[in-house]
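Worked Example 4.2. Consider the chain below.
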Amino acid sequence: MAILTAIMRGSETIIVTRDADVLEQYFKVLCLMKEHYRAMLVADRYAASPDTMPFREVPIHGNGVHIPPFSGSTILELETTDAELNPLPAGFHFVNTYCFVLGGEPSSMRTTSCSFCAETEIAQMLKVKTVTGGLNTDKLNGRNCTIHTTALTLENHRVVVSIGKETVLSINPFGSFGIDDLNNTLTENEEHTFLSYRSEP
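Applying the procedure from the previous section yields the following structure tokens:
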């Protein structure tokens, strides 16, 4: 609710807790929102002008063990890096949201803090996901756009953008979810962040 308040109202928010799990959940939901927002912006750009983005059609390969992320025989794929891909708008409305975890006894209390520089425009992505039942975009005729990053260096990451008919899994009694959402929720993003943090002088 604190994160939604910041994004939807443009009001700076602060979470103060003694529960370290709250910090983990805070970090996870913001990682997911960031990637969904970037995917929506890439999809908007591609839908407006497909010829300006070097997507290529690639076959979907299944290994017989894991559920393929997309259905059909092919998807559109763009391989690039974080340094080259920047779909974020030049003009935006900035808002901060913070999380502070308090630990120790009152006489020797310690604080772990995390902050996220959000954009209120992320609200549009949340509205799109609500209307489409979980897709990042409503511009691709039922196809979804996903972004995956892996570390090349601490300063730059390999980015793979995919567009296709996403596999949807039904999990009773909770409903249906895109497989990308499930994978991102279960994947640890904290390791790369920790390594990047530890490398700072």
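The first strand starts at residue 13 and ends at 17. The chain has one domain: 2-199. Compare this with Example 4.1 before moving on.
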